Amino acid sequence: MTGIHVAFLETNRTGSGYEVMRVAKERGWQVTLVTKDFDFYLQPGQQQIPMDGFDEVVNCDTDDPQAVAAVLSQRADRPDALLSASEFHMLATARTGRLLGLRGQDPDAVLACRDKSLGRRLCASAGVPIPRFVLAATPEEAAAADVGFPCVVKPLDDSGSYGVRLCANPQEVADHAKALLQWVVNEVGQPKLPGVLVEEYMHGREISVEVIVADSQVRVIAMTDKVLLAPPIFYEIGHTVPASLDPEVERACREAAVQALDALGYDFGAAHVELMLTPDGPRLVEVNCRLAGDQITRLVKLATGYDMHAALLDIYLGTDPGAPRQPNHGAAIVFVPSPGGRILGIDGVDAARSMPNVVDVATFVEPGAVLPEEAAGYDRLGYVVAVAEDGPAAASAAQDAVGAIQVDVETVPASDLR
Fold first, then answer.
1. Which residues, including other chains, have CB under 8 Å from residue 180's CB and lie 6 or more apart?
2. CB of 283 within 8 A of CB of 4?
3. CATH class, 5-102 region
4. Both ends of the chain: CA-CA distance in Å?
5. What is the pTM of this model?
6. Burial of 235 (0-12, 13-18, 19+ CB in 10 A)
7. How many CB atoms are closer than 10 A to CB 316?
8. What pLDDT, on the 0 to 100 scale, is given for residue 381?
9. Of 35, 146, 227, 323, whose CB is crowded by the most CB atoms within 10 A?
10. Are 256 and 284 in contact (CB under 8 A)?
11. Of 206, 213, 196, 248, whose CA–CA distance to 231 is shortest?
């Protein structure tokens, strides 16, 4: 296909959205980024947006589907597809696509993913295995939730594990719920849904199922093992493709993911379905209505050869995204965490690059940058990617390389932290 124009309504900052833009450019298509604040993509402590990944930036209120539709519909080069990889803009993208008459996601299904309480209710009604949960409007309601201790308290509609915390008793629940309820806008300035979820703490190992859905056909592309920081916060610091699963467990995970998508009415788009492998089988953590971030899609391509970025473009343009492929390698990413404070220096990057099986090492910050201690999915200094004969070998190689990187920092007043 030639003469194609693809517009992106914002994107994420952890790789996958940038990669979709790159694929579109490699195909010779016109790429437009619609954003309300381009400087958002230039902040330190994150993967930087590739300036050659798009042809044009259009400034617009990306939270207003009517405004975006008006801007794009008036162009002589009206887009052939509108998509996003930004968690915060999936709903606006779906609604704008409907206004423009473009192929895209069902806004109701996207809302069921973004509003975690709505998604929980729909999944519970459909018999999807989920944790016990309570929607609470006040700290007192949260503290009274009967889900057992410890329990997980989380916001209804954020991303990157922001605000997700393990609480040991009613007072901790009330305190954290109060803090969340006072947090009324997210990092991109959008109003947050009122309320918090209090959930049963699921013991087990977390994985994710990477999915492409088109014309109601679910294609399970890959499964990903995750490494999280120890509670009380839940923050992913590494991923491996493929997940090391017994065939029966893998089959149960596929079935749970498909069941959850069906319950939400999710019949189009990419999905990143997070599951906890508990002693009673896989249980749903949440369904994300987008490609996985954290370069998981890159790991999928390294491990299997399947390009989920290309597949996403294909389905938005009505073409076949192709069949999943079996992994022939293992691929892993491990992030360099932020220790918090002013960065004085980062050493050992060249040593990390020279280590066996390492295919990429990157850092996001320069000396002088002031960053918070890691608390969620954007507070990082860089990453290592490794490829090996299988997932565990790749993960071990990436972890060893991260261990070679040394970060020198100095403490700064809390008021100076970003």
1. 153, 154, 155, 163, 196
2. no
3. alpha beta
4. 44
5. 0.94
6. buried
7. 23
8. 86
9. 35
10. yes
11. 206
Beta carbons within 8 Å of 236's beta carbon, 6+ residues apart: 161, 226, 227, 228, 294, 377
Strand-pair category, 133-136 with 339-347: unpaired
CA–CA separation, 196 and 45 (whole Å): 28
Tally the residues of the chain. Answer: 418
Return the CATH superfamily for domain 132-200. ATP-grasp fold, A domain (3.30.1490.20)
- What local confidence, expressed as pLDDT, does residue 234 receive? 84
Would strands 269-278 and 281-288 be described as parallel, antiparallel, or unpaired? antiparallel
**Which of 3.90.1170.50, 3.90.550.10, 3.30.230.10, 3.10.25.10 is the CATH number of 330-416?**
3.90.1170.50
Q: What is the 3-state secondary structure (H, E, C) of 377-396?
A: CCCEEEEEEEEECCHHHHHH
Distance CA 18, CA 125 (A): 37
Residue 190 region, left (φ>0) first, then alpha (ψ -120 to 50), else beta?
beta
CB-based burial, 8-18: b 16+ in 10 Å, e otherwise: bbbbbbbbbbb
SS3 184: coil
DSSP-derived 3-state class of residue 286? strand
What's residue 98's pLDDT?
Answer: 98
CA separation for the pair 27, 95 (Å, rounded): 27
Alpha carbons within 13 angstroms on the beta-carbon side of residue 104 total 28
Pairing state between β 236-241 and 205-214: unpaired
Token couple for 52: 């050659």
**Mean pLDDT (10-residue bins), the chain, 418 residues:** 91 87 96 95 81 95 97 96 95 98 98 97 98 98 98 91 93 98 92 96 96 94 93 90 97 98 97 97 97 95 98 97 96 90 93 98 88 65 96 98 94 70
**Helix, strand counts (H, E) of the chain:** 12, 19
DSSP code at position 203: P
